[in-house]
Amino acid sequence: MTADNSPNNQTPNYAFSLTFNPEILRIISYVGLIIILLTGAILTATVVDIDPHTTAIYKLFGFNHACNWLDHEPSRTVSAMLLPLWEVPFLLYVIFNFLRIQDAYRENKAPQYVYLVSAIFLPIEILLTVWFRIVFVWNPEVNFLNHYLPYIGFQLLLFLVAFENILYFYVMKALPFKNSRPIALGYLIVLFMVTTVYIVVGLSVAVGHPILDLVNNEGQRVLFRTLTNVYTVLVIPIPLIASILELKRSPNHKLSFE
Fold first, then answer.
1. How many CB atoms lie within 10 A of CB 9?
2. What angle do CA 233, 238, 244 make, to 5 degrees?
3. Burial class (CB in 10 A: 0-12, 13-18, 19+), 208
4. pLDDT under 70 in the chain at which residues?
5. What is the distance between the alpha carbons of residues 147 and 151, in angstroms, rounded to a whole number?
6. H/E element holding 23?
7. Is residue 3 part of a domain?
8. Which helix (H) or strand (E) holds 82?
9. Would the pTM of this model clear 0.85, i.e. be above it?
10. What is the per-residue pLDDT for 156?
11. pLDDT for 3
């Protein structure tokens, strides 16, 4: 008995490739995040049956920020179900952003230190992305600190991605607004300062040793609330707009499967 090695009996090789721009993944993830927040806000305003002045966030910070939209049923469950709309495309973006930098390094378009920074950041960014869902595991009314820590990780994640992006486009001389280094570096410095203050103040409140009296001091509360609003602008609309602009400028990448 002999084997028939004719072409008709050979296993077909199903090979295909996909060409796309990694920035589309971040755009999809940010649209998903906006959908999650809007859905949570609507449910919290219309269905959630909790006095907003009795929430853990209000008692600790003196006001309810956007996180409160995701904290109470049924918004909590619905938001957790919608989380993959942000989580999956953002995780893919983190990976393909690294591959983009790796390609530039291999083609001698980016220096080694940029590649090394990206390689170090990659596992951290992956973990912080998938760990964000822990906000839905710990109820803030039961253990606020455990609920808040994944949000701090989320803040660190967004800064690491911003730093990595600006570093890459800086060395590639492809920053937005006609390669404007002052604007890019200014944004990164402001983001670092606002993120740091936000984390320090928020963590001090979460551990029970607040460095600001947000509940009783209206001036300090207004100042911190303004900072949270500035932070929201820095981490949602600005990166989204940057990705849309970059989508038109940067080359597509080819992903092959064989």
1. 8
2. 150
3. exposed
4. 1-18, 250-258
5. 8
6. helix 23-46
7. no
8. helix 75-82
9. yes
10. 97
11. 46
Query: What is the model's pLDDT at position 132?
Result: 96
Distance CA 74, CA 240 (A): 28
Residue 4 counted as domain residue = no
Q: For residue 256, is it within any domain?
A: no
Q: Is residue 9 part of a domain?
A: no
DSSP code at position 211: S
- Please give the helix or strand (H or E) that residue 16 lies within, else none: strand 16-20
Q: What is the DSSP letter of 15?
A: -
Dihedrals phi, psi of 139, to nearest 5 degrees: -75, 125
Task: Provide long-range contacts, Cβ within 8 A and 24+ apart, for 72-78.
Answer: 72/44, 72/48, 73/48, 74/43, 74/47, 74/48, 75/39, 75/40, 75/43, 75/44, 75/47, 75/48, 76/136, 78/39, 78/40, 78/43
Chain length of the chain:
258
Our count of domains for the chain comes to: 1
pLDDT of the residue at 1? 42
Sequence-ordered alpha helix ranges (H) in 107-212: 112-131, 144-171, 176-179, 181-206
Q: Which of 158, 150, 129, 171 is nearest to 242 (CA)?
A: 158
> What local confidence, expressed as pLDDT, does residue 7 receive?
52
CB 64, CB 58: distance < 8 Å: yes
- Its domain, for residue 41, covers 19-249
93, 26 contact by CB (below 8 A): yes
The b/e string for 64-86 (b: 16+ C-beta within 10 A; e otherwise) is: bbebbbbbbeebbebbeebbebb
